[in-house]
User: Fold this.
Amino acid sequence: MYCKNCGKEVNDNAVVCPNCGAQIAPFKNTEEKRTCTIAIVGFVLSFFFAIAGLICSIIARKKCNEEGLEGGGFALAGIIISAIELAVSVIAIIALVATTSCLVANAPYYY
Assistant:
């Protein structure tokens, strides 16, 4: 825990701060971790625009790792969802092209 008077770290069982002599009352560190906003944006975009979601999520994942921000889970989820969505889209396009080419190849010719 930390001394509320001088801010120095103090033993959890201490009654008086050894640095300044103030009475010890435990308090939480008021510094909260910041959340990476782009991670949330990338996660949301991954449902609607896979490529944009993938790009934002990759950038957010890198930023979260470098700066120690929260939101790495959202970024990872955005990457996974976007990748799956892109893979399904590619498979659907291939199936559509294959089906269309088979229909065109088997169409009757009228001269």
